Amino acid sequence: MRPNEASEAPALAARLEELKRRAAECIEASSERLAELSREIWSRPELAYEERQAHDALARFFAGLAPGSSPAGAWLVQRSYKLETALRADWQWGGERDAAGAAAAAAAVEDGQKAPLRLGFLCEYDALPGIGHACGHNLIAEVGAAAALGLKGALESLRPSGAADGLSRHVPAVKVTVLGTPAEEDGGGKIDLIKAGAFDGLDVVFMAHPSQEDAAYLPDVAEHDVTVKYYGKASHAAAYPWEGVNALDAAVLAYNNLSVLRQQMKPTWRVHGIIKNGGVKPNIIPSYAELEFYLRAPSLKELSILTEKAENCFKSAALATGCEMELKGGANDYYNVLPNKSLEKAYIENGKKLGMEFIPEDNLTGLSGSTDFGNVTFVVPGIHPYFYIGSDALNHTEQYTTAAGSEEAQFYALRTAKALAMTALDVIFKPDLLEKVREDFRLVKLKEEGYLNIPENGKVSGLGIGAACASR
Hints:
By secondary structure, this protein is an alpha/beta fold. 40% of the residues lie in helices and 15% in strands.
C-alpha cells in the first residue's frame, strides 16, 4: 500500500460501507417485483430443460427494470443463451458503456489494473417432478436477480463522481452478468453452459441455495448417474422356466451386490437407486430389466473408485444370470463444490451485519447433496452459500414446496441477496481480497487434482511431483 493510499484507507472503508447500504436499499426498493418474480416461477413449476415460462419471466424482469432508460443504464438481455431455457443479462459500469465512469477506467488502467472485472450471478429455476419447487429454486432465481440488481444500484451511485471517487480507482470497469441456468435437478445445465463457453472470462461467480440454516459452505459432493439394462430371454414361468434367462434376477442380484458392498464403503460414500423395469407379467420370465443408480463421494478421485466397485457389482450379476448388460453413465457428472475460504469469510462478515447466524464450521462434517455448481467451481472461483427460509422443513418434501412459496421466505431471500451483493462489492473494491480469492481457487484445485498436500492451516508443505490429476 502506498503512503497516500494508507491515509485514504479509513475514508475508503467508510465509502465502501455506504455502497453496501446502497446495494441493500436498491434490493429492498425492488422487493415487490422480486417477490412477483419468485411467485411466478413457484406457481408454474417446470422440469429440467423445459423451464420456458421461468426463462421468460426472468427475461421480462431484466428487460423491464429500467423502461425508457438510456442504453448505458439498461440490461442487455440474451434469451435462449446457448440453451433454449438459459438466459444471460449483462450490465457494465465503466468503460464504453458508462461515459461518466470512463475517467475512472482510464485512471485504473494507468495504475496497472486490467479491465473489466466480470462478476456472475447465477439463477436456477427448474422444479422437481410431482412436488414442484421443493428445493426452492424459485428463491435461487430471486436471490441471483436481486443481488445483481443491488450491485448495479451501488455502482451507479459512483457515476457522478467518476475518477474523483477514491474507490473508482481500483477497477477500470465492472461487468455484471446474470446467467439463468436450467436443469440443475436433472441433466446439469451449468455443465452444458460450461462446455458452450458461457463461463469464459468470468472472474468470480455467486449464487445461494435455500436450506434449513445459514452456512457459507456445505460439502456438496461429486455424483455420477448410471443406468443399467439387462437383457435376458422370455419364457413361460411355469411350463418351461429353464428356457428363459431372467433379467429381473440380474437386477435383483445387482441391487443386493451393492447392499453387500456397503459394509466396505467409506462412511462418506453414498449409493442409492431404483429398479425402473422388472418385467411385464408374473408368468413370463422377464427378458428386460433396468436400474438407475446415483453414486456419490466427496471428491472426483473417490468417486472414480466407487464407480469401479459399483460397475463390478453390475457386471457380476450379468455373469451369474447369463444376461447381456448395457451400462450407460449420465451425460454429465456433477463435481464436488470447491470451497473458497476468502469468499466465505467475506460473506460471513457481511451476513452477520445483516443478522445472519451461521452454523459453526465444526458442524460441517455431514454430507450434503450434489449440484452442477460444483463443476463451475473447477473453472472459476465462486461461492454457493445456503440460507434459512423461515422453515425447518427438509428439502425435496411437499412441506418445503410450501415454505419456498411463502411470504415469510421473502425476508430471508432478500437478506441473502444483500449479503451476496455486499460480498461482490468487497471483491471489486478490495484488490487484496480478489487476489486471495484467486489464490484460494488455484490452491484448492491443485489439492483436488493431487498436486499439493495442503494441511488444515492452509500452508503449502510442498509439491507432490509426479502425482496424477484425479479429475474425471
